[in-house]
Backbone:
């Protein structure tokens, strides 16, 4: 047995861990539109890696579909304790690092130039927002593919 205080202690803040747990419950519903009956699997995938920016520790959730990618860094803002979602569309081989996540924001970006913020403890709202955004972009990618073929 492990002490509760040490369980799942990978350095990410507890709010990011809660969003991770929420997104795990919605994995199939997010990817539903990418189901490939021929191969009996989803054509899209969601990856998870760590987001590390000094005191801001969380996760990057990456939605990937046939050359398209959308990364969502989720972490607790160091000044407000809000749950922050930072989005990047930069193509990377591994989990995007802090410079990759902020690259879309421009060289004059500040710590307040993120894409979405949720008040402290609004874990379900944050999770639902990410789910809906992932579903929206995945549907757009699939429709675009259908038009091109």
Residues:
């Amino acid at each position: 047995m492990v002490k509760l205080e040490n369980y799942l202690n990978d350095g990410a803040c507890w709010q990011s861990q809660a969003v991770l747990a929420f997104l795990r419950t919605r994995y199939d519903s997010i990817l539903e539109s990418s189901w490939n009956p021929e191969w009996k699997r989803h054509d899209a995938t969601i990856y998870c890696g760590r987001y590390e920016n000094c005191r801001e520790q969380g996760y990057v959730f990456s939605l990937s579909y046939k050359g398209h990618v959308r990364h969502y860094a989720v972490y607790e803002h160091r000044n407000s304790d809000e749950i922050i979602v930072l989005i990047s569309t930069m193509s990377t081989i591994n989990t995007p690092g802090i410079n990759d996540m902020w690259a879309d924001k421009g060289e004059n970006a500040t710590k307040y130039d993120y894409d979405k913020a949720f008040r402290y403890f609004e874990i379900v709202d944050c999770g639902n927002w990410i789910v809906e955004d992932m579903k929206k972009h995945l549907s757009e990618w699939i429709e675009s593919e259908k038009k091109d073929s």
